[in-house]
């Protein structure tokens, strides 16, 4: 249902408010360069500091501007189940194609708590769900056994796996139904995940180089493994640069240097340190992006 080269798109701000014009421009740039799924309001989209009305607005603008050209997978997770349900139902009403549901953060639920949380969200709407496991952000790791249980629910159709564990990813592939999609959530592991059987990647780096991220996927799908490997190696320094500080600080700084957005964050996120800005500029110049 969701496959290919996908972007966890940034949320551009201007003078403290959503920059709608820049968001639309970023969406067009993604689609023109091969991106197959737009993912608004994820971690990279600074969902944690969006108000609920802003959250809905970002998804609405994305759905309207995409206009069915590609799919929209809306980030709608929360560490409170009732909030996740509200956001999930709102995304359905707006017209998103699916819902990206992060594991509840900070409150550290048990594996049974994770199961009951996602089961409740799934029961609230027939909108397809992609689970999102990123323990480095949430302080909880959803184990493959829990993913397997959740994969039996009809509307839970895949997982964005960003634990960093290829062993964990392989267990998901091995024990979940073939119709259940494993998606890479770590840019540096995308090719390894594809070789395991992943059906695509939700990328941070694709914000900056959407065409190259698409080509890596496209080469792999066509069986041109050597070309895919070459593209992956070419992108590795850029992947590293996108995480030189907390995501999405480096990627928004990159897009600003490229003249695509204003460099604006919401506290507690702040701009790059001077030393890391120099490093990032150097990498972007090597890729002839600035």
Structure, briefly:
This protein is 46% helix and 14% strand. The protein has helices at 20-32, 52-66, 81-94, 111-123, 135-138, 144-150, 166-175, 190-196, 210-221, 225-241, 249-257, 274-286, and strands at residues 4-8, 13-14, 17-18, 37-39, 71-75, 98-102, 129-133, 156-161, 181-184, 200-203.
Question: What are the defining features of this structure?
Answer:
290 residues; alpha/beta; eight-stranded parallel sheet; two-stranded antiparallel sheet; 12 helices; 46% helix
Domain count: the total is 1
**What is the 3D shape?**
globular
Span between termini: 36 Å
The order of strands across the largest sheet is 9-8-7-6-5-4-1-10
**Element order: H for helix, E for strand:** EEEHEHEHEHEHHEHEHEHHHH
Work out the number of β strands. Answer: 10
Put simply, the count of helices is 12
Mean pLDDT: 97
CATH topology: TIM Barrel
| The named CATH superfamily | Aldolase class I
**Can you tell me the residue ranges where pLDDT is under 50 for at least 5 consecutive residues?**
none
Biggest sheet record: 8 strands, parallel
How much of the sequence lies in strands comes to: 5-15%
Helix content: 40-55%
Structural class, judged by helices and strands?
alpha/beta
CATH class: Alpha Beta
